[in-house]
Amino acid sequence: QVQLVESGGGLVPAGGSLRLSCAASGRTFSRSHMAWFRQAPGKEREFVAAARWIAGSTFYAYYADSVKGRFTISRDNAKNTVYLQMNSLKSEDTAVYYCAAGDRSSDYKVSLSYDYWGQGTQVTVSS
Quick one: pLDDT at residue 105? Predict the structure, then answer.
């Protein structure tokens, strides 16, 4: 059974940092696309960042404009884990953050492109 388990969320003041982790089990994702999405109360789930597998151990990182320059996605294939380092956090970053994984070469910004999802971790940024 494939599972993605997020951790690292919490309450942080504006300007602070958090690092989210997503540990996968049940299969290897070393040649899969992995991403982070988030959903704020009353809003639709939105793309945050993706690490798209290209070939071998090469991945390309993509970011939503709203987080570019502040967030960094990274992967540790040996641990089957993807991370999201979040710096200079703002109140508008408050949301439940979800890890996603998939193998289809479709639009990385679209949630339907991913087959596996974690349960989410809450990030709250106080202003």
Answer: 81
